[in-house]
Amino acid sequence: MTWQSRAKQVPQGGDGSSDFHSEQDSSGPAGDEQGGPAMTRRVAITGLGVVAPGGIGVKAYWEMLTAGRSATRIITHFDASPFRSRVAAECDFDPEAAGLSPQEIRRMDRAAQFAVVSAREALADSGIEADTYEPTRIGATLGNAVGCTTSLEREYVVVSDGGRKWNVDHEYAVPDLYRHFVPSSMVGELAWTAGAEGPAAMVSTGCTSGLDALGHAAELIREGSADMVITGATEAPISPITSACFDAIHATTPRNDDPEHASRPFDRTRNGLVLGEGAATLILEDLEHARRRGAHVYAEIAGFASRCNAHHMTGLKPDGREMAEAIDVALAQARIDPSAVDYVNAHGSSTKMNDRHETAAFKRSLGHHAYSTPVSSIKSMIGHSLGAIGGLEAAACALAIEHGVLPPTANLTEPDPECDLDYIPLHARERRTDVVLSVGSGFGGFQTALVLARPERSSR
Amino acid sequence: MTAQAVVTGLGVVAPNGLGTEEYWAATLAGTSGLGPVTRFDAGSYPSRIAGEVPDFVPEEHIPSRLLPQTDHMTRLALAAADWAVEDAAVDPAALDEYGMGVVTAASGGGVEYGQRELQQLWSRGKEYVSAYQSFAWFYAVNTGQISIRHKMRGPSGVLVTEQAGGLDTLGHARRHVRHGIPLVVSGGVDGALCPWGWVAQISTGRLSTADDPDRAYLPFTDQASGYVPGEGGAVLLVEDAEAAKARGAERIYGEIAGYAATFDPRPGSGRPPGLRRAVEEALADARVTAAEVDVVFADAAGVPELDRAEADALTEVFGPYGVPVTAPKTMTGRLFGGGASLDVATALLSLRDGVVPPTANVTAPADGCALDLVTGSAREAPLRTALVLARGYGGFNAAMVVRRV
């Protein structure tokens, strides 16, 4: 029997549900990839922090998302006039006002600053104190796709004297250059913020980095390597080299005359993604630990899987096959039947290729239920922040479960006839939400699915 | 029952040998691959020695359509992955596509490619930037390219923990195997031998400024004055032992028996550093005692303070002169995401042949450094269990136990 066929035979729902809530039972949703013999530990999200375009902090972020407001605008970080695409979703972020010290500001790239500010909010939100966990039992993971791009480009321009020198000048290098050069320094900042001395790693799988960092963090708790993990994702890519890269492959939208409506996933008139930036931090804990200390639990990370399309570094096939496989495995691991999914947070990058690819994937995995499941893309409001977006989307999913409100797909006024699901156009929707599926798709062929669920959801 | 993760294939690209057996023969003979930088003009820099992979002709290893879209280190990685698959006699087309994953380590990405495109942008304009730059430089590139080349559609990943990444990826590959994925291509191949990567490292103050290749990288000695950067690494084929047996795998180099990762406390916290704990947790994970470890492959930073910290951690766990310690990376330089993977490959070859390669160029450890450092020539010994250590800039520690099966 192949591994794949075993994965397909996992009981989903029904007979798997009887032991689902049994606290003393060793079965939980955190089984192995086949959904086989499950491990004891379940993983809770107990703290959230966000730095996003249009809103610093969880409260402002959620208000913006549920209002269906777009934070996209003409780029202000640099003079983007030479570029084909001049739109981005930028954070109005003042590091000093956000509480960072002068030395922290000097030491950290903008992306690291975002991460630390969101981490402090998440830690405060979780109610975790310095002595709640032994430092060696705290892990840290961070998703990020393009590192300290902004700082690196700024420093490159200086040491190369504006691109004139191939033999760049070491005497003009700043002392922190290597910290920017190896982006793992950012997960180091996150670890220091939480006092983490357990396993730490930056996860860098392009645009699925954020979801993959969460999956990695959940795994550290399940396998017993940590009791708590500070995890999340950050990116600050809005810089000339990033614009040049995406211009060169026409990935970003040229809709410069209408920047606030430029990110339009699933809309017939969409013509490319809008670059974004930001960070989200999530505090993950072993569910039992979290309950014992009386923590507020937003949701449980119930399932996670990633697959590769092994097709093309930037292209997608229209059939959505590998994303569907990731969804199937993540749901099987969570022991949740596809018909129980209440909401799908789509990758929805506002490119024709993506929107059709994942619509096909949802139909493959959810079957007929895909047509009655609300789906939305918050990239319509906060743009596509590459490695950070998975973290920001997971935070939004946790908030959707918390508040029973689904964020909309903004700017979706003329649906693409090839995309025929319920994409929650324009306006947020109230709906009790127990199970959320969040997906990501990225350069390199990565396809990831994450299942968040209310831990005390009714049996299925 | 937990699946056993075994290594069934190796692919090595190193400054002192292209291909596993070439590398192994050179390493046992104490032949160094360090020399003056030739890839670019290093004359104006305070550091001028590197470990370059010689005689690698990309056209001989990489399909021509991939040449314009790959950094040098990605080309090396693709070759190493090919060799690992070949060495294990795996035919990916005959296996379940979702049962094969790829996990690699990265540090700075495709730095030389990135420097070239930054120069195009800033000296000529944005229309001169390559359409491939968006992915050719980024950290996920090697995993993406290897998965495409071998049509491996299983769980994949990329971990960035600077030099610790070579162990963290193998630890992650073992996780996938334990979760039912039969085969994972894993490890690291890395390098940033271009002025931009060079200057970034000079800024740390940890790069050796010696001009004699044999005196430039002398870890654990009184003359230690920094490290020498190199390029290369190893790709390892990690398989579920049962799955390997079922497909008739010819060779099992050894088992990934134990692994742990820790992070150092914030400087000034007064708390102990994490390296010793990584070692102890990896030994516990492998269910072996310190006395059962036959050889240690050290991180060997070449920076006095870091060398001392590593020697102290080893002495605390194994006792003074308690276990043979070696650092064959004195022959390759430090390889970033690739170094620790190469050390694991080297450790497996040591187990296979019952011989510990020397720490080339080092004659005697520093006063107060109570290590049984294998120097001079290779040392024959019956070997069953090896420990590999790695540290990544900024506080990352990792330890891995490999064992003959």
Features:
heterodimer; A: 460 residues; alpha/beta; Peroxisomal Thiolase, Chain A, domain 1; 11-stranded mixed β-sheet; 3-stranded mixed β-sheet; 16 strands; 31% helix; disordered N terminus; B: 405 residues; 12-stranded mixed β-sheet; two-stranded antiparallel sheet; 12 helices
Shape, principal axes of CA atoms of chain A = globular
The radius of gyration computed from the alpha-carbon positions of chain B, rounded to a whole number of angstroms, is: 20 Å
- Low-pLDDT residue intervals, each spanning 5 or more residues of chain B: none
Briefly, what CATH class of chain A?
A: Alpha Beta
Order of helices and strands of chain B: EEHEEHHEHHHEHEHEHEHEHEHEEEEE
Q: What is the CATH T-level topology of chain A?
A: Peroxisomal Thiolase, Chain A, domain 1
Count of distinct strands of chain A: 16
Overall average pLDDT of chain A: 92
CATH superfamily of the largest domain in chain B: Thiolase/Chalcone synthase
Fraction in helix of chain B: 25-40%
- State mean pLDDT of chain B (0 to 100 scale): 97
Beta-strand portion of chain B reads 15-25%
Task: State the largest interface.
Answer: A-B, 93 and 91 residues
CATH architecture of the largest domain in chain B: 3-Layer(aba) Sandwich
What's the N-to-C terminus distance of chain A? 28 Å
Tell me the quaternary state: heterodimer
Principal-axis shape of chain B: globular
The number of helical elements of chain A comes to 14
Under the CATH scheme, the architecture of chain A is 3-Layer(aba) Sandwich
Low-confidence stretches of chain A: 1-31, 34-38
